[in-house]
Amino acid sequence: MPVAPVTYGASDRPPRGDYARAQDDYTCEQRSDYTAADHDTYRRLYERQASLVRGLACEEFIAALPQLGAADAIPRFDDINERLFKATRWELVAVPGLIPEVPFFQLLASRKFPVTDWIRTPDEFDYVVEPDIFHDLFGHVPMLFNPFIADYVEAYGHGALKADALGSCELLSRLYWYTIEFGLLQERGRLRAYGAGILSSPGEIVHSITSPEPQRIGLDLLRCMRTRYKIDTYQQTYFVIDGLKDLVRLTEPDFTELYAQVRQLPEIAADAGTHEDLRFGLR
Ligand code: HBI
Ligand code: FE
């Protein structure tokens, strides 16, 4: 069945990737036609990003990064899966690019993480709008070796399928955005990044931890789900948790009541603060 192309966030460009390769669940075989330039782009991206993580990424990420295997060429997902499945029963599946929300949630709910299998071109080295293989592998995969993240992302998948039935996907996607993609945590009193969008970005990994511009506030579910986000600039608000174990505890209650509460309250702009915010300064 030819699969419908999708768009991400506000961008309405046709997505990249060959969706004719995808099966009904949007998964495909990982490409085996990478060029020397593709492997070199991956090697250079990995080398630059790995040199930045110390003192900025959380220790759980730094400890798990070597699980991606060799850094001089695009890894084979099957190779990473041998280690990942043993660690947290997750497996990586290749997808041609962004996929519609429900198939995305269904894969997460079955502990299958969709990894885009194309890589940005050399002239997109510093920024690519859609998540490419480097964002997914370097940003998301090391954190899936952590048991709390592993359970939280699966719970997100189940919760998002329920939210879809309640027409509340947008509210829940804010929680995903401000945790899995752009979350910060406290590590012995210091701020560190655990969100994939930060961990895979050379600029934002520094900005999120050291810039005085953005606000950093303690993660509160209601506050987070009221807060809009932007997909093509550095975040203006970061939500902070005490530790990764907090994520699993956060998702224990049923969200139906929470969605109803959020709907009663005005949305909050990505750069706005409220007097109830628990603010974190720069150490
Ligand atoms: N598809 N391949 C892919 N990767 C994503 O991160 C992704 C997606 N589709 C939808 C989606 N993310 C968002 O809806 C979620 O982040 C909420
Ligand atoms: Fe991502």
Amount of beta strand: 5-15%
CATH superfamily: Aromatic amino acid hydroxylase
* Shape by Cα distribution: globular
Give the oligomeric state: single chain
Radius of gyration: 18 Å
Text of the CATH class: Mainly Alpha
Order of helices and strands: HHHEHEHHHEEHHEHEHH
Taken together, the total number of domains comes to 1
Under CATH, the topology is which? Answer: Phenylalanine Hydroxylase
Q: What ranges have pLDDT less than 50 throughout 5 or more consecutive residues?
A: none
Judged by helices, strands and strand pairing, the structural class is alpha/beta
The end-to-end span amounts to: 53 Å
Helix content: 40-55%
Average pLDDT confidence is 94
Describe the protein.
By secondary structure, the chain is of the alpha/beta class. It has a single domain, classed as Aromatic amino acid hydroxylase (Phenylalanine Hydroxylase, Orthogonal Bundle), CATH 1.10.800. It is 40% helix and 10% strand. The protein is built from 12 helices and 6 strands. It has a 4-stranded mixed beta sheet with strand order 4-3-6-5. Strands 1-2 form a two-stranded parallel ribbon. The longest helix is centred in the middle third of the chain and has 19 residues. The radius of gyration is 18 Å and the shape is globular. The termini are far apart. The mean pLDDT is 94. The structure holds 7,8-dihydrobiopterin and fe (iii) ion. Fe (iii) ion binds next to helix 5 and helix 8.
